Amino acid sequence: MGKCFFWAMTFIAGLVLLDAAEGVKSEQEKIDAPTLETIVVYSQAAASEVPPMKEKYQLPQTSQSITEDQIQERVNMMDTEDAIKYFPSLFVRKRNNGDTQPVLATRTWGVGSSARSLVYADDVLLSALIANNNSIGAPRWGMVSPEEIDRIDFLYGPFSAAYPGNSMGGVLQITTKMPEKFTFDLHQAESFQTFNQYATKETYETDQTSLLVGDKQGNISWLLTENFQNSDSQPLNYVTSGTTPAGTTGIFPGQNKLGAVANVAGAGGLLHTEMNNVGGKISWEIAPEVKMTYQGHYWYNETHSEVQTYLKDGAGNPTYGNLSGFASSTSLLNQQQMMNSLSVKTESKDSLDWDVSASNYYYINDLQRSPYGVSATGTSFSKNGNMARMNGTNWTNGDIKGIWRPTEAMGSHEVSFGFHADRYDLDNPTFGTNDWNGGGTSGPRLYTYGKGTTTTEALWVQDAWHFAPDFKLTPGGRLEFWQAFEGYNLSTKQNATGSITSTTSQNQPEADATRFSPKMALGWTPSKEWEVTGSFGQGYRFPTVTELYQVVSTGTTFAIPNAGLKPENVLSEEIAVERKFSDGHLRLSFFNENVKDALISQTSFISGATPVSYVNNVDEVRNTGVELAGEKENVLFHGLTLFGSGTYVDSEIVRDRSFASTTGTTAKGKRSPNVPDWRSTFGATYHPTESWALTAAGRYSGKQYSTLDNTDTVSQIYGAFDQFFVVDLRAQYQWNENVTVAAGIDNAFNNEYFIFHPFPQRTFTAEVKIKF
To answer: Quick one: pLDDT band at residue 57, thresholds 50, 70, 90?
Structure first.
C-alpha cells in the first residue's frame, strides 16, 4: 500500500510540469487559431481563495478549502462530515451513516483526540470540548445540514492567538448559506451497503431527506432547514469469548489485537437510527455596517442497537451462550439536544470593527438503556439493567473580538484582539433499574455518577504587520485562566441480579492553572505566485471535564476519571511553501510538534479480568512530518481537474515514566497511539460536457497502533487499527438549472478493514436535488 502514497506524491509533483506544459500549449493554440474559439471553463478555483475568517483576522496558518460546488461534484455525501473526506491529512472516524461519534483526526493526532482540534460553523463551536474521546467528544456535525454548507476551510496548527491550545491539530470552519433572494432546496439521497463478514450477510439501507428554504426581505435575511435520516448500520462490534461456550456450535476461532484468543460468537452494534435536525437562522442588518444574527438548532436521535448470535445449542436453536457481551451490545438510546447562538458584528473595514458572540449547547434529554446480562436460558436478556443519563449537561462559549487598523502613519498594522470565556458542566448518573426497557428516566439504585465543571477565561492579541513590501510578521499571545471544580464521583459493584454490594464516593479536589502561549509567524510573498511561511506556536490544552470526572462503561471496559491531570503543553513549528496557479495550487509543508504532559488514554487490566481505561499524562510526545498537497484544473485538456495529498509522520513517545507493563514492554521510542505513518488522498474530476462531472478518488492510511507500547500487531480483526486503501466513484448530471442527479460508490473494491470497528464495505448512493 506504500506504493499508493508514492504515486500520489509523484502525481501532485507533476502538477507543476503540467502547468508549464499547459502554458506552452495555450500559447501555441493562440498562434495556430485562425479565429476566436469559445472555451467552456469549469472553474473550481474558488476554494483556493483566502478563507473568510483568515482574511478578516489575518490568521497566519496554512489552509485548505472546498466549496459547495466541489463537494457536490466529488463527494458521495450523506452526512456533513463527509465533505472533508479528501482533505490533506484529515480523517473522520465515521463508522456508519448517522454516526453520532465521528471524531476528526488530524495530521499529528488520531481518532481518540476529539479535543485536539476545533470545528466551527459560522464561528459557533461544534466541537464538544466536554470530552476527549471517541464517544461524547465527537463534534456535533448533526447541527449543520449538508444542504446548508457554502464552503469549508481548515487551518493547520496552533499558530493563531485567536484559538486555544485545542487548535494543535487545526481549526475547521464551516461557512453556511445565507440567501440574498428566495431560495428553496429539496434533496433526497439513498444508500445501500452490501456487507458480508463472518456469518453476517446483509444489505443496509439509508434514506435521507433535506429541505432548505430562505429569503431576504429588506434588511432581514432568514433560513430554515430540516434534515431527516433513517439508517441501518453494519455490525459496529463483535461479541468475543476466550473459550467456546459449553454445548454450543457456530463460533468462529479468532484473536484480539494483542494475539490472545478472542473467538467470535456474534455481531453487535447493529444500529437502527432515526435522526432529525431542525434549524433556523435569522440576520438583521441593524445599520449598513452592523449585523445581528441568531441561530437555533434542535437535534433528535433515537437509536436501537441489536445483536446477532452465531451460536446454536445442541438442538440447533440460536443461543447467547451466557456471554454478557450480547447484553452490553444491546441498548436503546434517545437524545434531544439544542444549540443556540447570538452574534453582533460590524464590518466597516475602517479603523475598528467588533464581533460579539455567545452560544450554548444543551442536553435536553440523553438516556441510554441496556440490560445487565443475558438470561439463564441464554435466549433472552435479564430484565434488570442500567440507564445512563446526561440530561442537563451543557456548555457555553462567549467571545468579544476586535480588529484595529491604525492609520498609515503608524505603519501597516492590523491588530486583532479578544476576550473569551467558556463553561462546561457534566452531569452523568447511571442508574440500576429492575426493568431496563420499561420506561422511566431513573431507577431505584444509583450505579455510577460523575459530575463537575470547568471554566476558562482568556485574553489574546496579535498583530499582522506588513513591515516590508513582500513580508508580513504576525506576533501574538494568549493568556488563559482555567479552573475545575464541583467534581464528584460515585461507583458501585453489583451482583448478577443487579443488587449493589459496595459503594465508593468521593468529592474531587479543585484544580486551576494559568498559562501564557506565545505565537509568531513570518510570511514572504516574493510574487503573486509564491508564498513562504514560517510559523511557531505554543499552546496549552486543559483537561476536559470528562477526563477529570466521568465514570463510564463501554461494553466490558470501565473508564476511571483522573482529577489530578495536568494541562498538555504543545510546541509546534511549520515551514510551508506554496505555488499558486490561476487554476490551482501546490503546497509543501514541513512540521514538527512536541507535546509535554500529553493526555492519553490507555487500557489495562488493573485487577481481575475487567479491562479499565484511564487517562494519564505522558511525559513527552513528538510528531515530525511532511505534507504535500495540490490541485490543478484543466490538466492536459479542458475539464480535467486533479487533486491529491500525501503526508508522512514520524511519531515517537519520547518519555513515559508512568507506563507500567506486566510483560516487560516499554512505551519509550514507540509510535503515538492512532497516528499512522502514511496518509494520502488523490483523485480526478472530469467534465466531458458542461452538465456532467465524473470523479474517481482514493484514500490511503498506513498502519497505526492503539497501545502505548505498540503491542497490538494483529490485523484484520475487531479492535485492530488497520491500514486501508479505498476507491470512491461518483457521477453527477445537471439535468437543468433546477434539477441535479448523482450516483456513486464508496469503497468500490470492497476493501474489508477495521478502525477498531468494522468499517463500511461497498456502498452505493443515489441522489436527486431540486433547487429554485
So the answer is: low
What is the C-alpha separation between 503 and 461, in angstroms, rounded?
49
- Name the maximum alpha-carbon separation found in the chain: 93
Give the separation between CA 319 and CA 437, rounded to whole angstroms. 21
Residue 497: per-residue pLDDT: 63
Q: How far apart are CA 643 and CA 201, in angstroms?
A: 35
Positive or negative: CA dihedral 290, 358, 160, 133: negative
The grid coordinates of residue 230 equal 433513517
* The three three-digit cell numbers of residue 679, written as one number: 496518509
The label of the residue with cell 455518577 reads 449
- Which of helix, strand or coil describes residue 590? strand
Beta bridge partner(s), residue 448: 430, 491
Q: Percent of the chain having pLDDT more than 90? A: 74
CA 156 to chain centre: 14
Q: Which residues have a Cβ under 8 Å from the Cβ of 737 and sit 6 or more positions away? A: none
Find out whether 449 and 432 touch, Cβ atoms under 8 Å: no
Give the helix/strand (H/E) hosting 18.
helix 2-32
What's the sign of the alpha-carbon dihedral 716, 721, 726, 728?
Answer: positive
> Helix/strand/coil (H, E, C) string of 378-411?
CCCECCCEEEEECCCCEEEEEEEEEEECCCHHHC
Residue entry with cell 436501537: 304
Helix (H) or strand (E) holding 53: helix 52-57
Say if residues 323 and 262 touch (Cβ distance below 8 Å).
no
Which residues lie below 8 Å from residue 22, measured CB to CB, with a gap of 6+? 634, 635, 636
The type of residue at 567 is P
Torsion angle (degrees, nearest 10) of CA 212, 213, 218, 221: -30
- Kindly write down the DSSP assignment for every residue of 621-678, as one continuous string: EEEEEEEEEEEESSSSSTTEEEEEEEEEEEEEEEE-TT---SSS---TTSPPTT--SE
Confidence band of 715 (pLDDT split at 50, 70, 90):
very high
Question: If we measure between CA atoms, which residue out of 724, 723, 726, 681 comes closest to residue 704?
Answer: 723
Neighbours of 641 (CB within 10 A): 25
What residues contact residue 391 under an 8 Å CB cut-off, 6+ apart?
A: 363, 364, 365, 366, 367, 427, 441
